[in-house]
TrEMBL record:
Reaction(s) catalysed by this chain's protein: tRNA(Gln) + L-glutamine + ATP = L-glutaminyl-tRNA(Gln) + AMP + diphosphate
A Gene Ontology molecular function term of the record: ligase activity
UniProt xrefs under PROSITE patterns: AA_TRNA_LIGASE_I
Ranges where the record places region Disordered: 35-56
Name used for this protein in its record: Glutamine--tRNA ligase
Segments forming domain tRNA synthetases class I (E and Q) anti-codon binding: 501-573
Source organism of the structure: Ramlibacter aquaticus
Length: 596
């Protein structure tokens, strides 16, 4: 007997190399014996705690130096998604080891973005929100440990000497003359560094590994540098700060991270990640087994840039109206553009994770949005480039020019339960300028003299001509009503027409600002090659127009999304839209207009 397919199975996430690694670790119980102190801690404190209740621990570790972009969304969906799927925990960690001025705006923005995407760092009442700078004491302790173990030394070569002695791909490095200092001298100099007795750049603490290693990252990498600078969290307590490559593995280890997932650029750092954590684990400083680093390909999305530095430049130089400009590939920008958290998650799932760098077409993101909104978004009619259609026999047929006829349409065509919306048909309607032609091009089924079309949800009309001004600009289109053709009434379909056009009644249509956004850049891979990425901004990436929309839309709450029939998906702008002053952003068209 065959079992009916479990619907949960068909909805199961496609596997990928990270899932396979996690499943293998779970099966083998790689991390099953580790203890957890209830918070990030060293090996001793963790040992006092119970077995770690989290089956896996991942983390999302942004630097609070800008707003998050779509690439970060991929990383968030990945890290929080894996934790959710495997009964784990994902830590939200600010990687704030660089002393820089407090950017509370960025910290808040990042937390908002993660929450908005639908993830939480609270699990069973515990908040897993951490900041790397809280680990400075431990990091310094680890540094002294390495010195005492003969695994690190204070190098006082000049920056140029250090660079020259590092060698390159074809040439091994040369040992620093400071490399053979005694442990005691190293310890004394490290403490001099810590105590502010040395100037910025006068010395660095380096790991003692191998100056001839084919992996340049293992040629005695720097661990600590001197920087007499205030830190937003630790103030002036420190004048030495850990290098990222030293800090990151330690942050992971203290937090009991199991799978430390990062982008491919860090692949060459993995041997040092393991070297460092192996040494600290041997010394009994951190939990065993230690976290492992796994790399995946970063997201590159066509027609935008995904680098905080470049996005910041767009904002600072006012090429856009801020981090949340709807043209920006930031999470706040996409949100304002009309994207939903579900669409972003769907996108992340569809692009998957791989080990090969490449570009994902922007249309994949747009399709995820259409697929998410199609079943959800209420329908509405809007005329984006309005011209008047005058029904010349209206008064005679209806008993007065001012008579209005109420028409209605489903809020959603596949869900009658959502009810109907209504609007008025009258003598004058707004239609799209492009829905009329004096002489129809081949295959044109809309309005031209002698042709009949249906005004969707309304009546059939027959075009009788148009009025133009002296310059030939279209002023009005004229038509006559064909009686007994109102949609939904018996016999309405007896009159066959090929064209079906959208409209808004002049009597109750509401003027609205529509912001038609297009690709931010006009080339698919801005910033690659020699070009300055700013040269390729798409000059037509925003068009602002006055449209007419159905009366009900004037009351729409900010952030409400609609499908404007024929035109695409629109959202009531969260900043600009207000009762009495509707403003809609086009999130995406009905289909991919950039497809070749
Ligand atoms: P940027 O270069 O834009 O500043 P970053 O990598 O320096 O990005 P972080 O704040 O350090 O930014 O990133 C936090 C996390 O997001 C990291 O784990 C990083 O790997 C991940 N991430 C950043 N950009 C992308 C991307 N384009 N695709 C996937 N993951 C990304
Ligand atoms: Mg960075």
């Amino acid at each position: 007997m065959t079992q009916p397919a479990d619907p949960k199975d068909s909805a199961a996430k496609p596997s990928n190399f990270l899932r396979q690694i996690i499943e293998r670790d779970l099966e083998q119980g790689t991390y099953a014996q580790r203890h957890w102190a209830g918070q990030p801690a060293d090996a001793q404190a963790h040992a006092q705690g119970p077995l770690d209740p989290a089956r896996i621990r991942t983390r999302f570790p942004p630097e609070p130096n800008g707003y998050l972009h779509i690439g970060h969304a991929k990383s968030i969906c990945l890290n929080f998604g894996l934790a959710r799927d495997y009964n784990g925990v994902c830590h939200m960690r600010f990687d704030d080891t660089n002393p820089e001025k407090e950017e509370q705006e960025y910290v808040d923005g990042i937390l908002d973005a993660v929450k908005w995407l639908g993830f939480s760092w609270d699990t069973n009442g515990t908040s897993h929100l951490y900041q790397a700078s809280d680990y400075f004491d431990f990091m310094y302790r680890a540094a002294e440990y390495l010195v005492e173990a003969g695994l690190a030394y204070v190098d006082e070569q000049s920056a140029e000497e250090m660079r020259a002695n590092r060698g390159d791909f074809g040439r091994p490095g040369k040992d620093s003359p400071f490399r053979s200092r005694s442990i005691d001298e190293n310890l004394r100099r490290l403490r001099d560094m810590r105590d502010g007795r040395l100037a910025d750049g006068a010395a660095v603490l380096r790991a003692k590994i191998d100056m001839a290693s084919p992996n340049i990252n293992l040629r005695d990498p720097a661990l600590y540098r001197i920087k007499h600078a205030e830190h937003h969290n630790t103030g002036d307590r420190w004048c030495i700060y850990p290098m990222y490559t030293f800090a990151h593995p330690i942050e992971d280890a203290l937090e009991n991270i199991t799978h430390s997932i990062c982008t491919l650029e860090f692949e060459d750092q993995r041997p040092f990640y393991d070297w460092l954590l192996d040494r600290l684990a041997e010394g009994g400083l951190i939990n065993k087994p230690h976290p492992r680093q796994y790399e995946f390909a970063r997201l590159n999305l066509t027609y935008v840039v995904t680098s905080k530095r470049k996005l910041k430049q767009l904002v600072d130089e006012k090429h856009v109206d801020g981090w949340d400009d709807p043209r920006m590939p930031t999470i706040v920008g996409l949100r304002r553009r009309g994207y939903t958290p579900e669409a972003m998650q769907l996108f992340a799932e569809r692009i998957g994770v791989s080990k090969a760098n490449g570009w994902v077409d922007f249309s994949v993101l747009e399709q995820a949005l259409r697929d998410d909104l199609d079943p959800k978004a209420a329908r509405a009619m809007a005329v984006l480039d309005p011209v008047k259609l005058v029904i010349t026999n209206w008064g005679a047929l209806m008993g007065g020019d001012d008579v209005l006829d109420t028409c209605s349409a489903p809020v959603h065509p596949h869900d009658e339960a959502r009810g109907r919306r209504s609007f008025s048909f009258g003598r004058v309607l707004w239609i799209e300028r492009s829905d009329y032609e004096d002489v129809p091009p081949k295959g044109y089924n809309r309005l031209f003299p002698g042709n009949r079309v249906r005004l969707k949800y309304g009546h059939v009309v027959e075009c009788t001509g148009a009025v133009r001004d002296a310059e030939g600009r279209l002023l009005e289109v004229h038509a006559t009503l064909v009686p007994d053709t109102k949609s939904g009434t018996p016999g309405a379909d007896a009159v066959k027409v090929k064209g079906n056009i959208t409209w808004v009644g002049a009597a109750d249509g509401v003027p609205a600002e529509v912001r038609l956004y297009d690709r931010l850049f006009s080339v698919p891979q801005p910033g690659t090659g020699e070009r300055d990425f700013l040269d390729k901004l798409n000059p037509a990436n925003l068009q602002v127009a006055t449209a007419y929309v159905e009366p009900s839309l004037a009351q729409a709450a900010p952030d409400t999304r609609f499908q404007f029939e024929r035109h695409g998906y629109f959202v009531a702008d969260r900043q600009l839209h207000a009762p009495g002053r509707p403003v809609f952003n086009r999130a995406t068209g009905m289909k991919d207009s950039w497809a070749k």
